[in-house]
Design goal:
By secondary structure, the protein is mainly α. It is built from 17 helices and four strands. The chain is globular. The structure holds zinc ion (2 copies).
């Protein structure tokens, strides 16, 4: 059994039944959710409770904004912050840096800046560990947000599937810390883990959130008063809820929505979607192709704001190095695909000329040639894109 297959606390209904992925009912999911949100059951549930409570607090500024300060212009500002800035930050810090180590900060000062670039919404531990497991077992049993589990399975995943296992041995726990050590989280000693069931400590996590929120609320207040601050904090609530749907949509909602010439990774159902791509650089099919890359937008229209942010940090000296797989993508995927398309176009053109020049008695022979050539051509396309 691989290490990553046992780092997450399995749900009561299990990831597997009869040696196949088990898709729980909604009742089972909600029952698991209730169990893991119950501090009286175990104090080790604290991180789930903390996360949902902190997210819920963001509904207060949303209510204040809507009832006291609402204007369309501030709503636009809040939504841009929420969708673009929070989204890009998630890709930049939680995804590409903390999980995939796609780049390195020059020092801890720059990492601190990178880590606190926006209002804190998701604790690193919740994202990083489970995301390693997602890549290892994409769409297989054990994937914490397995798209085949359905929308609710993914929406509630941070509580019901993403928590770390509570009975790790000391060596296993130490190994686990190495998965998150770059993220800047001050993690627990093993004895503290045994008490709290988590890598991060509740007091330090609460302090981090408090200072981060106080700083950002103060900054927005100085710029635009309570109106701006509540607009931005309030709209962040919308992102905190909406982001939970991403993992389901990012894998095609369980359907094969991959498009030839766009989604070159054929190993899973992940897709390059326009909206998450444009607002956050999450070209998810590309990302599954090169998970440790600092860039996921490869095709000319695939804007990647997280990549631009990494480049900006690099230009001012905050980021030392990064991994970029664009050349490899072009060499191994795009160029062969385009070559196969060109070849097909040429073949189609010569076949058209051939069939135009044919006289009636020879048409049967040419017809079979056309069919043979077309089949060969499409086989080449399939091979080129890895179908
Ligand atoms: Zn994925
Ligand atoms: Zn990833």
């Amino acid at each position: 059994m691989s290490f990553l297959s046992r780092v997450l606390e399995p749900p009561t209904y299990g990831f597997v039944r009869d040696e196949k992925f088990y898709r729980p009912t909604h009742r089972e999911l909600w029952s698991e959710f209730k169990k893991r949100m119950n501090l009286f059951d175990s104090v080790k549930n604290w991180l789930s409770v903390f996360c949902w409570t902190a997210n819920s607090f963001l509904a207060i500024p949303l209510f204040v904004f809507l009832t006291q300060y609402f204007s369309f212009s501030l709503l636009m500002v809040g939504m841009v912050y929420s969708m673009v800035i929070l989204g890009t930050y998630g890709t930049f810090y939680l995804h590409r840096y903390s999980t995939h180590h796609a780049f390195t900060f020059k020092n801890n000062f720059w990492r601190f800046i990178g880590r606190n670039l926006v209002i804190k919404i998701i604790p690193e531990e919740v994202y990083v560990i489970s995301h390693h497991v997602h890549h290892k077992f994409s769409e297989q049993p054990g994937d914490p947000y397995n798209v085949h589990g359905g929308w609710l399975y993914c929406f509630l995943a941070d509580v019901v599937h993403q928590g770390i296992r509570k009975d790790l041995s000391r060596p296993e726990y130490q190994r686990l810390t190495r998965l998150i050590e770059k993220s800047g989280v001050h993690f627990n000693q093993y004895e503290q883990y045994q008490k709290w069931g988590s890598l991060c400590h509740p007091a330090l996590t609460a302090m981090h959130y408090s200072l981060n929120w106080a700083f950002w609320y103060g900054a927005f207040f100085l710029i635009g008063g309570h109106a701006l601050a509540t607009a931005i904090f309030g709209c962040s609530f919308i992102w905190a809820v909406g982001i939970r749907t991403y993992n389901y949509d990012g894998h095609g909602a369980g359907k094969d929505r991959r498009q030839v010439g766009i989604d070159f990774n054929r190993a899973d159902l992940s897709v390059n979607q326009i909206w998450p791509g444009y607002v956050a650089g999450e070209w998810h099919n590309n990302h599954h192709l090169f998970p440790s890359g600092a860039r996921s937008g490869f095709l000319p229209y695939q804007l990647d704001l997280a990549w631009l942010l990494i480049r900006a940090f690099n230009l001012v000296g905050g980021i030392n190095s990064y991994r970029d797989y664009k050349d490899q993508f072009i060499r191994e995927y795009l160029a062969p695909y385009q070559a196969s398309l060109n070849q097909k176009t040429e073949q189609d053109g010569s076949l058209t000329e051939l069939s135009t020049a044919q006289n009636a008695p020879k048409s049967g022979v040419a017809g079979s040639a056309i069919r043979r050539s077309t089949a060969t051509s499409s086989d080449q396309v399939s091979t080129a894109v890895g179908l």
